[in-house]
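Q: what sequence does this backbone want?
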C-alpha cells in the first residue's frame, strides 16, 4: 500500500510541475485568460523531458501495481 501511495503522490506531483511549466509559458500570451485548460499545444510541449519521464515512470509503476493487484485478487 505504501508503494501505491508513493506512486500516486509522484504522479500528481510531476503532473503539477508539468502544468506549471505550461502555464508559465501561456502567461506570455496576451489572450491568456487563466483558465485551467487555456493552453495551446506549443505551451504544453514547453514541459522539459526530464519531468515528463518522471511522470511516465510513476504512471507505469501505478499501472503495474494495479495489474499485480488484479492478478493477486483473481488467484485467491
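A:
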Amino acid at each position: 500500500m505504501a508503494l501505491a501511495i508513493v506512486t500516486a503522490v509522484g504522479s500528481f506531483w510531476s503532473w503539477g510541475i508539468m502544468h506549471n511549466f505550461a502555464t508559465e509559458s501561456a502567461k506570455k500570451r496576451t489572450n491568456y485568460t487563466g483558465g485551467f485548460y487555456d493552453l495551446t499545444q506549443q505551451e504544453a510541449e514547453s514541459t522539459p523531458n526530464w519531468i515528463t519521464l518522471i511522470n511516465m515512470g510513476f504512471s507505469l509503476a501505478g499501472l503495474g501495481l494495479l495489474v499485480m493487484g488484479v492478478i493477486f485478487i483473481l488467484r485467491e
